[in-house]
Amino acid sequence: MTTQIDSVATLSSVSRIFKGKTGTVHALDNVSFDLKAGKTLALVGESGSGKTTAARVLLGLDQPTSGSIDVLGRNLGSLKYEELRLLRREIQVVQQDPFSQLNRRHSVERIISSPLIAFNIGDKQSRRNQVIELLKAVGLEEEHLNRRPHELSGGQCQRVAIARALAVDPKIVVLDEAVSALDVSVRAQVLNLLRDIQASRGLTYLFITHDLGVAHYMADEIAVMFRGRIVERGNRDDVFKESRHHYTVGLLSSVPLATPPTEKRVDKVVQSLPSPEVDDACNYRSRCAVGLGREDCKSLPIQITQGSSTHSWLCHSPVVRS
Ligand SMILES: Nc1ncnc2c1ncn2[C@@H]1O[C@H](COP(=O)(O)OP(=O)(O)OP(=O)(O)O)[C@@H](O)[C@H]1O
Ligand SMILES: [Mg+2]
């Protein structure tokens, strides 16, 4: 018997186009994915591929040009300002830079209690008790309450940011390169902490990373982005062991997979240049050894191939697997 896992958030055919003096950027081009309750979806891809834009539209911090977003059964496009504000209690974010995301003038207590104050939860004493509990949950102590961010290490700051995200007891946490700035041993500790917290609180993660080793360690499902499109999506083993898109295969070819990741890797930080003439054909064709010479890759509209109930890709001539 298969168990149906509920989706807690869905992006359906979402596009986001930025128009500026330097041209038009298709940051998201017909992107669809869902987050399953209690699971982790890792969004991977090179710099500029649209990962943060996807997170921002999901968080309601940016409006899509087209498409729809549902979070916990609510359509973001139909929500009024106050309804969206209240929904933010259920979906929190932790960002990359441990220092810049925390107000350096504020104490740890004030930083972690700020969402409780914003949502009018508890009184001063109960908030203090809750902050102490949260500090313990992220491996810090009561003695850290009065410290300022500059009196903490990068890993401790990131723990404070995680505690702040957990304060209002959200159902979904978006982690946008949340461990990328940490050194390797601290990164492994924070990843393990995130996994423990997920298990104990039943949280759903959207986990954005350049680092495929980290994605392998954390994810149940993986979506690979290239220039605004999801080019391959599947369960972790579908994508890592049975990759069908040539871009995924290229990304994976240089990645040593450790569990948990313990050694420093060279992250792929290649700027994904937005294509000026976005068309319906494959947008990877000019970088693809297979697609470069093929007429159908240049001219045929690209469509999702659903290889199995969990695994799909966007390629006319996918890698052949036996
Ligand atoms: N506010 C904006 N105005 C104009 N262009 C934008 C804006 N935000 C993002 N972009 C462009 O959209 C594309 C996707 O950006 P995004 O930040 O989503 O990429 P990313 O995958 O998160 O990259 P990184 O790994 O470097 O964080 C890029 O070309 C970026 O320059
Ligand atoms: Mg980003």
Arrangement of strands in the largest sheet = 6-7-8-3-9-10-12-11
The CATH superfamily of the largest domain is known as P-loop containing nucleotide triphosphate hydrolases
Residue windows where pLDDT falls under 50 for at least 5 positions: 261-271
The helix-strand sequence is EEEHEEHEHHHEHEHEEHHHEE
User: Rough shape?
Assistant: globular
Distance between the termini: 27 Å
Task: Give an account of the 3D structure.
The chain is of the alpha/beta class. Helix 3 (108-118) crosses helix 4 (124-137) and helix 3 runs parallel beside helix 5 (154-166). 41% of the residues are buried. The chain folds into two domains: 7-90 and 170-313, P-loop containing nucleotide triphosphate hydrolases (Rossmann fold); 101-168, no CATH class. The strands form two sheets. The chain has an eight-stranded mixed β-sheet with strand order 6-7-8-3-9-10-12-11, with helices on both faces. It has a four-stranded antiparallel β-sheet with strand order 2-1-4-5, covered by helices on one side. The protein has helices at residues 51-58, 81-87, 108-118, 124-137, 154-166, 184-201, 212-218, 236-241, 246-252, 295-299; strands at residues 7-20, 23-36, 40-44, 66-71, 74-75, 91-94, 172-176, 204-209, 221-226, 229-235, 305-306, 312-313. Strand 11 and strand 12 form a beta hairpin. The longest helix has 18 residues, at 184-201. It starts with 6 loop residues before the first strand and ends in a 9-residue tail after the last strand. Bound molecules: adenosine-5'-triphosphate and magnesium ion.
